[in-house]
Amino acid sequence: MSKLFVGGLAWHTDDNTLRAKFEEFGVVEEAVVVKDRDTGRSRGFGFVRYAQDADAESAIAALNNVEFDGRTIRVDKASERSSVVNTTGYRLRVLGSLSHNPTDSAAFR
Protein backbone atom coordinates (compact mmCIF):
# COMPACT_ATOMS: atom_id res chain seq x y z
CA MET A 1 0.00 0.00 0.00
CA SER A 2 1.38 3.43 -0.98
CA LYS A 3 0.22 6.87 0.04
CA LEU A 4 1.00 9.83 -2.20
CA PHE A 5 1.19 13.53 -1.39
CA VAL A 6 -0.38 15.77 -4.04
CA GLY A 7 0.53 19.45 -3.75
CA GLY A 8 -0.42 22.53 -5.74
CA LEU A 9 -4.07 21.57 -6.16
CA ALA A 10 -6.53 24.14 -7.47
CA TRP A 11 -8.81 25.56 -4.78
CA HIS A 12 -11.85 24.08 -6.53
CA THR A 13 -10.45 20.52 -6.81
CA ASP A 14 -12.49 18.15 -4.65
CA ASP A 15 -12.10 14.55 -3.48
CA ASN A 16 -14.03 13.11 -6.44
CA THR A 17 -12.02 15.03 -9.06
CA LEU A 18 -8.77 13.95 -7.41
CA ARG A 19 -9.89 10.32 -7.25
CA ALA A 20 -11.02 10.28 -10.89
CA LYS A 21 -7.65 11.54 -12.12
CA PHE A 22 -5.58 9.11 -10.05
CA GLU A 23 -7.80 6.11 -10.89
CA GLU A 24 -6.29 6.30 -14.38
CA PHE A 25 -3.25 4.54 -12.83
CA GLY A 26 -4.87 1.89 -10.65
CA VAL A 27 -7.32 1.18 -7.86
CA VAL A 28 -7.49 4.14 -5.47
CA GLU A 29 -8.38 3.19 -1.90
CA GLU A 30 -8.64 6.78 -0.71
CA ALA A 31 -8.40 10.27 -2.21
CA VAL A 32 -8.70 13.26 0.10
CA VAL A 33 -8.29 16.99 -0.46
CA VAL A 34 -7.23 18.49 2.87
CA LYS A 35 -9.49 21.30 4.04
CA ASP A 36 -9.12 24.06 6.60
CA ARG A 37 -11.03 22.94 9.67
CA ASP A 38 -12.42 26.42 10.35
CA THR A 39 -13.46 27.52 6.86
CA GLY A 40 -13.90 24.18 5.08
CA ARG A 41 -11.90 25.50 2.12
CA SER A 42 -9.22 23.48 0.37
CA ARG A 43 -5.68 23.96 1.64
CA GLY A 44 -4.32 23.20 -1.84
CA PHE A 45 -2.98 19.70 -1.18
CA GLY A 46 -4.24 16.19 -0.64
CA PHE A 47 -3.40 12.52 -0.37
CA VAL A 48 -4.10 9.50 -2.55
CA ARG A 49 -3.69 5.93 -1.33
CA TYR A 50 -3.21 2.99 -3.70
CA ALA A 51 -3.44 -0.70 -2.85
CA GLN A 52 -0.49 -1.49 -5.13
CA ASP A 53 2.92 0.19 -4.94
CA ALA A 54 3.37 -0.16 -8.71
CA ASP A 55 0.21 1.90 -9.33
CA ALA A 56 1.53 4.65 -7.05
CA GLU A 57 4.87 4.69 -8.87
CA SER A 58 3.05 4.97 -12.22
CA ALA A 59 1.02 7.92 -10.95
CA ILE A 60 4.14 9.71 -9.69
CA ALA A 61 5.92 9.21 -13.02
CA ALA A 62 2.94 10.40 -15.05
CA LEU A 63 1.56 13.25 -12.93
CA ASN A 64 4.44 14.95 -11.11
CA ASN A 65 4.88 18.51 -12.44
CA VAL A 66 1.91 18.12 -14.79
CA GLU A 67 -1.03 20.49 -15.16
CA PHE A 68 -4.20 19.18 -13.51
CA ASP A 69 -7.42 21.13 -13.02
CA GLY A 70 -5.68 24.35 -14.09
CA ARG A 71 -2.60 24.07 -11.82
CA THR A 72 0.78 22.34 -12.00
CA ILE A 73 0.75 19.69 -9.29
CA ARG A 74 3.54 17.99 -7.39
CA VAL A 75 3.14 14.26 -6.71
CA ASP A 76 5.46 12.28 -4.47
CA LYS A 77 5.36 9.54 -1.85
CA ALA A 78 3.88 10.86 1.37
CA SER A 79 6.23 10.89 4.32
CA GLU A 80 5.10 9.22 7.51
CA ARG A 81 4.31 11.47 10.42
CA SER A 82 7.01 11.22 13.00
CA SER A 83 5.87 11.03 16.56
CA VAL A 84 8.02 12.41 19.30
CA VAL A 85 8.40 9.91 22.09
CA ASN A 86 9.39 11.11 25.52
CA THR A 87 11.76 8.51 26.92
CA THR A 88 13.08 10.63 29.78
CA GLY A 89 10.07 10.28 32.05
CA TYR A 90 9.93 14.05 32.52
CA ARG A 91 7.05 16.27 31.52
CA LEU A 92 7.67 19.53 29.71
CA ARG A 93 6.26 22.63 31.32
CA VAL A 94 6.48 26.04 29.66
CA LEU A 95 6.88 28.81 32.19
CA GLY A 96 6.40 32.50 31.70
CA SER A 97 6.40 35.66 33.81
CA LEU A 98 8.79 34.27 36.40
CA SER A 99 11.10 36.36 38.51
CA HIS A 100 14.75 36.45 37.56
CA ASN A 101 15.59 34.41 40.65
CA PRO A 102 16.42 30.90 39.36
CA THR A 103 15.51 29.36 42.71
CA ASP A 104 11.99 30.71 42.59
CA SER A 105 9.92 27.95 44.19
CA ALA A 106 6.94 28.76 41.96
CA ALA A 107 8.77 27.22 39.02
CA PHE A 108 9.05 23.87 40.73
CA ARG A 109 5.44 23.38 41.80
Automatic annotation (TrEMBL):
<keyword id="KW-0694">RNA-binding</keyword>
<dbReference type="InterPro" id="IPR048289">
    <property type="entry name" value="RRM2_NsCP33-like"/>
</dbReference>
<protein>
    <recommendedName>
        <fullName>RRM domain-containing protein</fullName>
    </recommendedName>
</protein>
<dbReference type="InterPro" id="IPR050886">
    <property type="entry name" value="RNA-binding_reg"/>
</dbReference>
<feature type="domain" description="RRM">
    <location>
        <begin position="2"/>
        <end position="80"/>
    </location>
</feature>
<dbReference type="GO" id="GO:0003723">
    <property type="term" value="F:RNA binding"/>
</dbReference>
<dbReference type="InterPro" id="IPR035979">
    <property type="entry name" value="RBD_domain_sf"/>
</dbReference>
<dbReference type="Pfam" id="PF00076">
    <property type="entry name" value="RRM_1"/>
</dbReference>
<dbReference type="GO" id="GO:0005634">
    <property type="term" value="C:nucleus"/>
</dbReference>
<dbReference type="InterPro" id="IPR012677">
    <property type="entry name" value="Nucleotide-bd_a/b_plait_sf"/>
</dbReference>
<dbReference type="InterPro" id="IPR000504">
    <property type="entry name" value="RRM_dom"/>
</dbReference>
